[in-house]
Design brief:
alpha/beta, Rossmann fold, seven-stranded mixed β-sheet, 6 helices, 32% helix, globular, phosphoribosylglycinamide formyltransferase activity, Formyl_transf_N_sf, GART, transferase
Length: 217
């Protein structure tokens, strides 16, 4: 097969989406290699899990730098040292500057626990319930300087149940995140999709058929 894309995953915590990406990349035909996991928090649980899985790890502690750009320039050096070609953000809780995003434009994905453009930002499950939506989900998108924007690669939906709490809804969304992210990375790394303007064109990465929400009124 052709050479695999050297990919780094950026995390801040436990790295559950990281686990799913590492597992998916074990397949011989997967077009991306998880070559590095980096965290801005040296104590992040995900670093130990990645190391146990045989993946190189690094910590770039944002707290020791005077500002975002200083932190990002050190992060960039680490990525270049490991010859990284593509980035996946997986629970990376740092806002990135336009400078850093410019270095990786078209080569960086993020996963967001909502169906963008709805519910950008934090506390998405609580806000979805408060808004009364019947369908919620997750989105994989290319990263641009504007938060939670950028061309959408793939989305997965779940029905919102009458009995849902933010925790129960979040659990079902996370299950879809684990399926969706690896499928989206496969599509992008293999060249099966392409971004044109704010749209991503090509094969669908949806892990499930169109969702029908039963009427419960």
């Amino acid at each position: 097969m052709s050479r695999r894309l050297r990919t780094a995953i950026l995390i801040s915590g436990r790295g559950s989406n990281m686990d799913a990406l590492i597992e998916a990349a074990r397949a011989p035909d997967f077009p991306a290699e998880i070559a590095l996991v980096v965290s801005n928090r040296p104590e992040a649980v995900g670093l130990a899990k990645a190391k146990a899985a045989g993946v190189a790890v690094a910590a770039v502690d944002h707290k020791i730098y005077a500002g975002r750009e200083e932190f990002e320039r050190s992060l960039q050096i680490v990525l270049e040292t490991h010859r990284i070609e593509f980035l996946c953000l997986a629970g990376f809780m740092r806002l990135l500057t336009p400078w850093f995003i410019g270095q990786w434009r078209g080569r960086m994905l993020n996963i967001h626990p909502a169906l963008l453009p709805a519910f950008r930002g934090l506390h998405t499950h609580e806000r979805a319930l408060a808004a009364g939506v019947k369908i919620h989900g997750c989105t994989v998108h290319f990263v641009v300087p504007e938060m939670d924007e950028g061309p959408i690669v793939a989305q997965a939906a779940v029905a919102v149940l009458d009995s849902d709490t933010p925790e129960s809804l979040g659990t079902r969304v996370l299950e879809q995140e684990h399926l969706l992210y690896s499928r989206a990375l496969r599509l992008v790394a293999s060249g099966a999709v392409r971004a044109e303007g704010n749209r991503v064109l090509g094969a669908s990465a949806s892990p499930q058929p169109a969702l029908t929400v039963p009427f419960s009124g």
